[in-house]
Design brief:
Elements: E1 7-11, E2 18-22, H1 26-39, E3 52-55, E4 59-65, H2 88-96, H3 106-116, E5 123-127, E6 130-136, E7 145-147, H4 152-167, E8 172-173, H5 174-181, H6 186-199, E9 203-205, E10 217-220
Parallel strand pairs: 1-7
Antiparallel strand pairs: 1-2, 3-4, 4-6, 5-6, 8-10, 9-10
Helix pairs in contact: 1-3
């Protein structure tokens, strides 16, 4: 699918460097596929029915057999933390493998990734016998170049990084940072902000030899 996505060139107004940006955020599509595989119906009733990924000119659709399960509705997706899981063993295995961070994080991650990519939130539909996620392509994606200096989303990301740096004047856990900046998905926080701040040597880990440790904390690097 990635090779079928169009890519546009972004020229940074700050560094002048060229960057490639796919028309859809890859992480959001990945979460959509994971969500479909985790929550699909594996019973005899759906035997021979596959997860479908359909790519159109203006959207990507991911559909899995088996609609919403248990006591959950469309309006509660991404908001309800304790929900009935159709395949709890699969979720548990993926959590142990750190492929998924925690239950209920997939929907918020898809929404956040689309938002930070400058696109509308995905549309979720509980259709007859299945569940459908639609990622729509914004018309602004047709523009081949975007100056990040004029992109308000970039400014929001910079502000978020500054908030994290100020908050990490003392040692902070991932959970504390996530709660402070209002990000529900800790994995998204790590990949979108903490990893970049680490690469820029603006923050450091207190246990660098064990990056996934539960006792891991982050602190801003003192430049004085």
């Amino acid at each position: 699918m990635l090779k079928n996505m169009s890519v546009k060139t972004i020229i940074s107004g700050k560094t002048g460097k060229r960057e490639d940006k796919t028309e859809y955020p890859v992480k959001a599509i990945r979460e959509g596929v994971l969500n479909a595989l985790i929550h699909r119906d594996y019973s005899i009733h759906s035997e021979g029915v596959y997860v479908q990924i359909r790519m159109y000119k203006d959207r990507i659709e991911i559909q899995n057999p088996g609609g919403l399960f248990g006591r959950i509705s469309i309006d509660l997706l991404g908001k309800k933390k304790n929900y009935d899981a159709r395949n709890p063993n699969i979720i548990r295995i993926l959590e142990d493998m750190e492929i998924v961070e925690n239950r209920g994080s997939g929907i918020p991650t898809m929404i956040d990734e689309m938002h930070h990519h400058g696109l509308k939130a995905p549309v979720f539909d509980d259709i007859r016998g299945g569940f459908l996620v639609t990622f729509c392509r914004d018309s602004e994606q047709d523009s081949p170049q975007v100056n990040q200096q004029d992109n308000p989303q970039v400014n929001q990301q910079d502000e978020m990084k500054m908030k994290i740096l100020e908050f990490c004047a003392v040692h902070r856990t991932r959970k504390e940072i996530a709660e402070f900046v209002g990000i529900k998905d800790i994995r998204y926080l790590k990949e979108a902000y903490l990893s970049k701040l680490l690469e820029q040597d603006l923050i450091r880990m207190t246990i660098p030899d064990k990056p996934t440790s539960r006792n891991q904390k982050y602190v801003a690097v003192n430049r004085n």
